[in-house]
TrEMBL record:
Function text: Catalyzes the transfer of a formyl group from 10-formyltetrahydrofolate to 5-phospho-ribosyl-glycinamide (GAR), producing 5-phospho-ribosyl-N-formylglycinamide (FGAR) and tetrahydrofolate.
Residue positions binding N(1)-(5-phospho-beta-D-ribosyl)glycinamide: G11, S12, N13
A single GO cellular-component term on record: cytosol
Pathway listed: Purine metabolism; IMP biosynthesis via de novo pathway; N(2)-formyl-N(1)-(5-phospho-D-ribosyl)glycinamide from N(1)-(5-phospho-D-ribosyl)glycinamide (10-formyl THF route): step 1/1
Protein name (Swiss-Prot/TrEMBL): Phosphoribosylglycinamide formyltransferase
PANTHER family: PHOSPHORIBOSYLGLYCINAMIDE FORMYLTRANSFERASE
Keywords: Purine biosynthesis, Transferase
Binding positions ((6R)-10-formyltetrahydrofolate): R64, M89, R90, I91, I92, N106
This enzyme's EC code(s): 2.1.2.2
Keyword Translocase: no
Organism of this sequence: Paenibacillus endophyticus
Gene name as annotated: purN
Active site feature: H108
Domain Formyl transferase N-terminal as annotated: residue spans: 2-181
Amino acid sequence: LRIAVFASGQGSNFQAIIDAVQNGKLDVTIELLVCDKPAAPVVERARKASVDTFLFAPKEYPSREAYEAEIIAELERRGVELIVLAGYMRIITSVLVEPFYGRMINIHPALLPAFPGVNAIQQALAYGVKLTGVTVHYVDGGMDSGPIIAQRVVEVADEDTEDSLAVRIHAAEQALLPGVIQRIAQGRVTLDGRHVRVSSS
Ligand code: GRF
């Protein structure tokens, strides 16, 4: 399976994908990193792993649709079959969602449908939930609203700060995401309306 990863920041999830491929646990080709922040640490991770990058500055385009059209052309040129959004901090339009519906997934640092949008870890802590976690879901036209593929629970401790909780959330993300991609690569994930089935063999 040929995949592209979209990321804007640290790239710890991108790194987890690279590591899983290198360890033989994930049978995909990382065709491309797409990044809107040329100075982000994730770009250096791609360089070290010899992954090609498509870097763009949103300000240089008249609209989201304009840069997404360029991205789509690049993805099609490379035969990308799955898009993984891993900390890509931009709103996606129908230019990307429509051609890739069912072939684009996102990792979110909360148990959706609780705490969608930005600052999910902070939102969960402020609300006072005792359990939070991470979600991998298909991307639809809404904000973190698409069909859920997999979730993992993280307990909130009384003494947690945003930083301490974030450490465990990120560890849970990195533990979950490569395995979900592997199941998709193996053809074990089927989407039926809002319901996603992951078969065991
Ligand atoms: C992750 O928490 C992801 O769920 C969120 O942004 C963060 C990205 O982290 N949407 P990283 O860039 O993979 O380290």
